[in-house]
Amino acid sequence: MGDLDTSHATLVDGSVLESGGQILRNAVSIAVITKRPIELFNIRAGRQDPGLRSQHAAAVELASRVCCGHLLSCAVGSMEIRLIPGQISPGSYEADAKTAGSVSLMLQAVAPVLAFASNQSELLLRGGTDTLFAPPINYMIEVAHEVKDEALRCLSKCFSCPINIDSFQESSDRCKGNVAAFMFVMHTSTDCRLAVTGIINPRDHHYRQMVSEACQSLYNYSKFGICCDDYMQDQLIVLMALAKGNSEIRCGPLTLHTKTAIYVAEHLLGVKFEVTTNDGSSVISCNGVGYTPEHLKNSCS
């Protein structure tokens, strides 16, 4: 692991719960924001290909560069890393997954960090824009007319409000690989925006069932008064833990990513999350640590 002194680092076991990249992303974000040295071990131990993949290494290296940190053992295949964060520095940064690894998941590791920077930053991320098990970057890419018609049919049964679905296609010289992706977004009267998404293999003819299930999920969000969708719930956990006072969100059943994010936040920040379930929805609450970066302390006092 090298000669970097991390004797006071907080240990994080990457084999807990989701045992994948979520623990890595959340732990690195919290560590960089709070300038807390961490040592992660058993990284992605629950996967068939354990250890860091290219996109994970790229995300961690990016977070380390953003905070001028000291990083050890961040290489593809590594089962452990050590990170001593420095000062978060706004600026222009680039990262390349070198694979079709999701740029959305790479962004999850650094977006909370840059929110605590003293100025605006710019990111150029290269990787997959629409991948399985990750939030897509675009609302729709290469959506087939059949998907559009099926979505209109399903949604019209559930909602009496006007429904608009549009589609577009990126030029072939701008992307690698072929995939059909869709995202349906619902704007509520309480200013919530909830989305459901799907990725369709061009050779897969079961799109009707996928679209129908997505529309049912959107209807359930409305039925149970949910304010954040399945992709958003885990991304809010770190922010709730860092916020001052009590935060509360209503979502659907907790995803494994959300349970993992809660574990990491409680482990690194000492906060306590409470979860209550009722009639198809969950309420997550937390009394945050009230973290304020140095450059904002005078303005917040």
Give a concise summary.
One of its GO terms (molecular function) is RNA-3'-phosphate cyclase activity. By secondary structure, this protein is α+β, with helices and mostly antiparallel strands.
Into how many domains do the coordinates divide? Answer: 3
- Describe the strand arrangement of the main beta sheet, using strand numbers: 1-2-4-3
SS-based class: alpha+beta
Q: Strand share of the residues? A: 15-25%
- CATH topology tier name of the largest domain: UDP-n-acetylglucosamine1-carboxyvinyl-transferase, Chain
**Spans of 5+ residues with little confidence (pLDDT < 50)?**
138-147
InterPro entries: RNA3'_phos_cyclase_dom, RNA3'_phos_cyclase_dom_sf, RNA3'_term_phos_cyc, RNA3'P_cycl/enolpyr_Trfase_a/b
Pfam families: RTC (PF01137)
Organism: Schistosoma haematobium
GO molecular function: RNA-3'-phosphate cyclase activity
What would your notes on this structure say?
- It is a single chain.
- The protein has 301 residues and is α+β, with helices and mostly antiparallel strands.
- It folds into 3 domains: 1-129, RNA 3'-terminal phosphate cyclase domain (UDP-n-acetylglucosamine1-carboxyvinyl-transferase, Chain), CATH 3.65.10; 137-218; 226-300, 2-Layer Sandwich (Translation Initiation Factor IF3), CATH 3.30.110.
- Helix content is 34%, strand content 21%.
- The chain is built from 8 helices and 11 strands.
Q: What's the SSE blueprint?
A:
Blueprint: E1 10-13, H1 21-34, E2 38-41, H2 54-66, E3 70-72, E4 81-84, E5 92-96, H3 103-115, E6 122-126, H4 145-158, E7 180-187, E8 193-200, H5 207-223, H6 230-242, E9 244-251, H7 256-269, E10 273-278, E11 281-289, H8 297-300
Parallel strand pairs: 1-2, 5-6
Antiparallel strand pairs: 2-4, 3-4, 7-8, 9-11, 10-11
Pfam families: RTC (PF01137)
InterPro entries: RNA3'_phos_cyclase_dom, RNA3'_phos_cyclase_dom_sf, RNA3'_term_phos_cyc, RNA3'P_cycl/enolpyr_Trfase_a/b
Domain RNA 3'-terminal phosphate cyclase: 17-275
